[in-house]
Amino acid sequence: MPLEDLVTGRGATEVAVDDDIPEQVRQTLADYLRIRVRECGDLDPAVAGAAEELVDFVLRGGKRIRPTFAWWGWRAGGGSALGPEATAMLRAASSLELIQAGALMHDDLIDGSATRRGSPTVHVRFSEFHREHGYAGEPRDFGLAAAVLLGDLALSWADDMLRSAGLASGALARALGPWQAMRTEVLAGQYLDMLGQARADETPEAALRIDELKAASYTVQRPLEFGAETAGADRATLGVLRRFGADIGVAFQLRDDLLGVFGDPEVTGKPAGDDLREGKRTLLVAEGMLRAKQQSDETALELLETSLGEAELTREGVQRVRDALDRLGAVEAVEKRIGTLTESALSALHEAELPEPAARALERLTVTVTDRDA
């Protein structure tokens, strides 16, 4: 399909996006990225080959959480499920996945992660590519540079995709507020995350602030606001969605932190304990250290301090940390906070009069992103 058809909606099939948002997002991205790769091929086949790596990364997996929240923000704000406006909104929401792709590529570089979603990370793949072809220079340096450039390309294409989505001028102008805020906030959260590791800041307050910026805003609150603003939602609806999104976003990140230590690699796509090896100062770790000090448990405190940031931490070492966090009450404390945040978010949702099916969908999403067994 020509790019101009994607922009104007000519040739687009009207589908009920409500029924399968992740698949509709995946197909929308596939259509858009196919055209962008073709443009790269006009520049140089090698550029198209690198862009194909980006396409593979974007389409290979992911739960499409951000576009999903954006879509239900649109529906909660009065947006329709069918028609040209819905088609344009689907494209706009799908562009959030390109921001996520760029953020993940750069995040993997910062953390030195070897795998993502069960496959080698982008910088590792390009390092291997360099090594296989016997190119000059260091494979690692080539891999790092390639991942930076592909991450930047993903972020650039996200802007392009949003602006060419076909939104009416007023809708696009409203959408740009949360879009711009979200991009600044996630980078701020990433920087504070790095700074916290450098400072060895182990306070729960620091961990929560990072969660608010890097997860709550970026993953839930701003995407919801993005969709609702695009639909032209009233101030009351926007207020409810912001409160709901702030609470659910933090709860989502706290669940992710627990999975980072206790999760099944088949589910998380990363080796168990990677957050520990990378030195992540999560609320779970902060609560563990705080309780170890309060309980004068020097053995547990030393274990946590020496394990955090230990790149060669073994599975047995991860299990010892798990046992300590559980024994200290850190796991229980985080679970309790997740429960409190979830109840607060649902309370805000139930007090509002959001249209169906948006209200029920947001309730289901709450379970999906916060429940330990979901």
Characterize the structure shown.
It is a single chain. The chain is mainly α and 374 residues long. It has one domain (3-370): Farnesyl Diphosphate Synthase, CATH 1.10.600.10. Helix content is 77%, strand content 1%. It has a two-stranded antiparallel sheet. The longest helix is centred in the middle third of the chain and has 31 residues, at 169-199.
**Which architecture does the CATH hierarchy give at level 2?**
Orthogonal Bundle
What is the CATH fold-level name?
A: Farnesyl Diphosphate Synthase
Structural class: mainly alpha
What coarse outline follows from CA principal-axis ratios? Answer: flat
Q: What fraction of the residues are assigned to beta strands by DSSP?
A: under 5%
* Helix count, DSSP H or I runs of 4 or more residues: 18
CATH class assignment:
Mainly Alpha
User: Would you identify the regions where 5 or more consecutive residues have pLDDT less than 50?
Assistant: 1-13
Order of SSEs: HHHHHHEEHHHHHHHHHHHH
Distance between the termini: 37 Å
Number of strands: 2
Number of domains: 1
Radius of gyration: 21 Å
| Fraction of residues in helix | over 70%
State mean pLDDT (0 to 100 scale). 91
The assembly state of the depicted protein chains is single chain
Instruction: Report strand order across the widest sheet.
Output: 1-2
